[in-house]
Amino acid sequence: KSDLTQIPSAEHLKLCVWEGAAESQIRIQVSQLDKPNHQYIDECRTIPEACRGDMVCVNQNGGYLCIPRTNPVYRSPYLNPYSNIYPPPPASNYPTATRPLICRFGYQMDENNQCVDIDECAAESHQCNPTQICINTEGGYTCSCTEGYWLLEGQCLDIDECRYGYCQQLCANVPGSYSCTCNPGFTLNDDGRSCQDVNECTSQNPCVQNCVNTYGSFLCRCDPGYELEADGISCSDMDECSFSEFLCQHQCVNEPGAYYCSCPPGYILLDDNRSCQDINECETRNNTCTTQQTCFNIQGGYKCLDPVKCEDPYIQINDNRCMCPAENPGCRDQPFTILYRDMDVVSGRSVPSDIFQMQATTRYPGAYYIFQIKSGNEGREFYMRQTGPISATLVMTRPVKGPRVIQLDLEMITVNTVINFRGSSVIRLRIYVSQYSF
């Protein structure tokens, strides 16, 4: 290790290590001294980057040396520090052959005898797969894939971007790329990935009346009194009158988008806009009765009543009462008095219902009273219910439909067993049944 050991073979590579006081150096020497007719080459000039890093190339006979820049032995790139150890061989008398210049793999000699990089991609001398692309590098090339592909076992395979959620809504994978689309009601933003809601109400407003935008869609709404049709866009009038027969007391009138209640002649509509109230034509003097007639108001109208005329053998004792005198033989089997009364009831009144009360005006000792319907009750719609010794009530037992006029003779029979007396009085009651139930 203290000196140089040389292997005396003309074809062999010599590796010598010399340890100095400060540093070590490696010298590579190719000895061909035993071969005549060879010309020595300056490898430091002909080989690009013969020494790398912090090493400096020093040419040697038959080779070159790489030493650190800080080595004190180093003086110039072409100084041979071992020239005294390895003296140059004597000049040969044989003819010499020029050694050809050789470039490293991936380089070629240009016209200036410089080693330049070979563009294998442009020369199509690469070995890349047809699915790959060639990228030239210094002294070589690499095989890569285009955007949208990845390299797997020497093949460029398409990347399914849709698996990684590149799109907000709909994603369609295509070779080497992908395409984002949006659901109906959305539009693709400028970034090509996210979607934005479309306000159909402002852009096209497909609704006939009112449009309400929703996320990704819209809803059509109709004005009060209208209902949405099956197409979800059009509105048609809602027939409120068909919903219930109780909307109006009398008649429901439908109109576009609404309805109103009407009342028959003789009635006015109340503030609730559904109920009807009778107009009292006798109080408002909105009637056609003469001065000799009496105006009698009924539900939905009025009656002009003529003065009471008593038939023979009765005599008139006031406006509505007739009396049959006891001294008149024709009055023996007739009621002593006939009182004329008028009343009105609504059609279809609920039953049973008390509608009229009858009672004796004078009570005699030992007398009792019998109340009955003498005539006019052929339909058995009424009966008399005695409510006390001297009173009774007329009860409606069946609904009566109008318009109709019913005349009942309500008889009160007086029986006195003390004086052996039997007599009767009659109330001739005219009942005006209205056309309507209100």
TrEMBL record:
<keyword id="KW-1015">Disulfide bond</keyword>
<dbReference type="InterPro" id="IPR055088">
    <property type="entry name" value="Fibulin_C"/>
</dbReference>
<dbReference type="GO" id="GO:0005509">
    <property type="term" value="F:calcium ion binding"/>
</dbReference>
<keyword id="KW-0245">EGF-like domain</keyword>
<keyword id="KW-0272">Extracellular matrix</keyword>
<dbReference type="GO" id="GO:0005615">
    <property type="term" value="C:extracellular space"/>
</dbReference>
<dbReference type="InterPro" id="IPR000742">
    <property type="entry name" value="EGF"/>
</dbReference>
<comment type="similarity">
    <text>Belongs to the fibulin family.</text>
</comment>
<feature type="domain" description="EGF-like">
    <location>
        <begin position="197"/>
        <end position="236"/>
    </location>
</feature>
<dbReference type="InterPro" id="IPR009030">
    <property type="entry name" value="Growth_fac_rcpt_cys_sf"/>
</dbReference>
<dbReference type="Pfam" id="PF22914">
    <property type="entry name" value="Fibulin_C"/>
</dbReference>
<keyword id="KW-0732">Signal</keyword>
<keyword id="KW-0130">Cell adhesion</keyword>
<dbReference type="GO" id="GO:0048251">
    <property type="term" value="P:elastic fiber assembly"/>
</dbReference>
<keyword id="KW-0325">Glycoprotein</keyword>
<protein>
    <recommendedName>
        <fullName>Fibulin-5</fullName>
    </recommendedName>
</protein>
<dbReference type="Pfam" id="PF12662">
    <property type="entry name" value="cEGF"/>
</dbReference>
<dbReference type="InterPro" id="IPR026823">
    <property type="entry name" value="cEGF"/>
</dbReference>
<comment type="function">
    <text>Essential for elastic fiber formation, is involved in the assembly of continuous elastin (ELN) polymer and promotes the interaction of microfibrils and ELN. Stabilizes and organizes elastic fibers in the skin, lung and vasculature. Promotes adhesion of endothelial cells through interaction of integrins and the RGD motif. Vascular ligand for integrin receptors which may play a role in vascular development and remodeling. May act as an adapter that mediates the interaction between FBN1 and ELN.</text>
</comment>
<comment type="subunit">
    <text>Homodimer. Monomer, homodimerizes in presence of Ca(2+). Interacts with ELN. Interacts (via N-terminus) with the integrins ITGAV/ITGB3, ITGAV/ITGB5 and ITGA9/ITGB1. Interacts with FBN1 (via N-terminal domain). Forms a ternary complex with ELN and FBN1. Interacts with EFEMP2 with moderate affinity. Interacts with LOXL1.</text>
</comment>
<dbReference type="InterPro" id="IPR018097">
    <property type="entry name" value="EGF_Ca-bd_CS"/>
</dbReference>
<feature type="domain" description="EGF-like">
    <location>
        <begin position="158"/>
        <end position="196"/>
    </location>
</feature>
<dbReference type="InterPro" id="IPR000152">
    <property type="entry name" value="EGF-type_Asp/Asn_hydroxyl_site"/>
</dbReference>
<keyword id="KW-0964">Secreted</keyword>
<feature type="domain" description="EGF-like">
    <location>
        <begin position="237"/>
        <end position="277"/>
    </location>
</feature>
<feature type="domain" description="EGF-like">
    <location>
        <begin position="117"/>
        <end position="157"/>
    </location>
</feature>
<dbReference type="InterPro" id="IPR049883">
    <property type="entry name" value="NOTCH1_EGF-like"/>
</dbReference>
<dbReference type="InterPro" id="IPR050751">
    <property type="entry name" value="ECM_structural_protein"/>
</dbReference>
<keyword id="KW-0106">Calcium</keyword>
<keyword id="KW-0677">Repeat</keyword>
<dbReference type="InterPro" id="IPR001881">
    <property type="entry name" value="EGF-like_Ca-bd_dom"/>
</dbReference>
<dbReference type="Pfam" id="PF07645">
    <property type="entry name" value="EGF_CA"/>
</dbReference>
<feature type="disulfide bond">
    <location>
        <begin position="201"/>
        <end position="211"/>
    </location>
</feature>
<dbReference type="GO" id="GO:0007155">
    <property type="term" value="P:cell adhesion"/>
</dbReference>
